[in-house]
From TrEMBL:
Parts of the chain that traverse the membrane: 23-44, 56-77, 98-122, 185-204
Gene Ontology biological process terms in this record: ATP export
Keywords of the record: Ion channel, Ion transport, Membrane, Transmembrane, Transmembrane helix, Transport
Organism: Kryptolebias marmoratus
Highest classification ranks of the organism: Eukaryota, Metazoa, Chordata, Craniata, Vertebrata
Endpoints of the signal sequence: none
Pfam short name (any one): Ca_hom_mod
Name the record gives this protein: Calcium homeostasis modulator family member 2, tandem duplicate 2
Topological category with respect to the lipid bilayer: Multi-pass membrane protein
Family of this protein: Belongs to the CALHM family.
Length: 321
């Protein structure tokens, strides 16, 4: 019974874990995926060239190139990146103050750095790339009883210990231990620095936010639900509009039974003008109207649209926050 209860509780926890929209958990999943990818890469794809002049370049590339790719993918996958570009395209960034731009860039870059920093830290903690890159720079004179007259060409071969003369192979354990110590020290320093930075940024965010903790959490939930419902409704709306146009062209439209029932339930889709699309697209921070919170551009559009005041709607929708 105790085991069954423990399994049930763990299952509930995992269910909540994967259903959660929380940023910290999402970042944690990104980090875990990066750790798995880095481990697989080290096992199956990392092969030190063991050649002077190439070790250093290969080691740097093994750490830096994937990190750069992860960073660019993180930038591209962040919706706020495209919101910022849309803001500059639609409204020429006229309402985007320096402080607002800094906050947005901080959010975009902060999210994008999760995967590359995880890759770099795990690379240093494992030490394979660092050992490969720095092996040729080990000073033979610092190794006890190491034969003199050995250059960087010999030292570069140590990561491939089988290619080193038999008389020198016994020195590899000490060289590897030294390089992994240096590599892991750098890795742990990066972990400490990143942790302090995140803690500092969270403190700054909480201290400068105009909202309390409960309202911040509500705002996060609202954004998540709005985005989910907007995407789901947009999909159905696009399908309805496409069905109408196909039917007007062919005289009929071929739909699955479930699609036909769903489209009949929603009946018709009216086209949305580009002006309204542009009004709900772009950067948004936070704004209130007579003390009433407006949590998004869509929320603001709906609030002012109910007043049927075109002049006020056009004026407010051009405001960033």
């Amino acid at each position: 019974m105790a085991v069954a209860a423990l399994i049930t509780e763990n299952f509930k926890f995992m269910s909540l874990f994967f259903k959660s929209k929380d940023v910290v958990i999402f970042n944690g999943l990104i980090a875990l995926g990066t750790v798995a990818g880095q481990t697989a890469y080290t096992v199956f794809a990392f092969h030190c060239p063991c050649s002077s002049g190439r070790n250093y370049l290969y080691g740097l590339a093994a750490i830096g190139a994937p990190a750069l790719v992860f960073f660019l993918v993180g930038i591209m996958m962040n919706r706020r990146t495209w919101d910022l570009l849309s803001e500059c395209r639609l409204r020429k960034c006229q309402k985007l103050s320096g402080a607002a731009a800094f906050v947005l860039l901080q959010i975009i870059v902060g999210r994008a750095l999760v995967a590359p920093l995880t890759w770099v830290i795990i690379s240093f903690l494992q030490g394979h790339a660092y050992t490969c890159a720095l092996s040729e720079f080990i000073d033979p004179g610092t190794l006890e009883s190491f034969p003199s007259g050995q250059g960087s060409e010999v030292m570069a071969k140590f990561p491939c210990v089988e290619s080193v003369p038999t008389s020198l192979q016994s020195f590899w354990a000490g060289i590897e231990r030294r390089l992994k110590y240096e590599s892991q020290l750098i890795g742990w320093l990066l972990v400490a620095g990143m942790s302090l930075t995140v803690f500092f940024m969270l403190c700054v965010k909480r201290c400068t936010s105009p909202l309390g903790d409960q309202q911040e959490e509500y705002w996060s939930l609202y954004r998540s639900h709005e985005n989910t419902l907007l995407q789901r409704t947009a999909s159905v709306h696009a399908q309805l509009l496409a069905a109408q146009n196909v039917k007007s062209f062919f005289g009929f439209v071929a739909l699955e039974k479930e699609e036909k029932e769903e489209l009949m339930e929603h009946e018709r889709a009216n086209p949305i003008c580009s002006t309204d699309w542009n009004r709900i697209t772009g950067v948004y921070l936070y704004r209130e109207k007579n003390g009433l919170p407006l949590y998004s551009r869509l929320n603001k559009w709906a609030t002012y649209n109910l007043e049927n005041n075109t002049e006020a709607l056009e004026k407010e929708m051009d405001v960033l926050s």
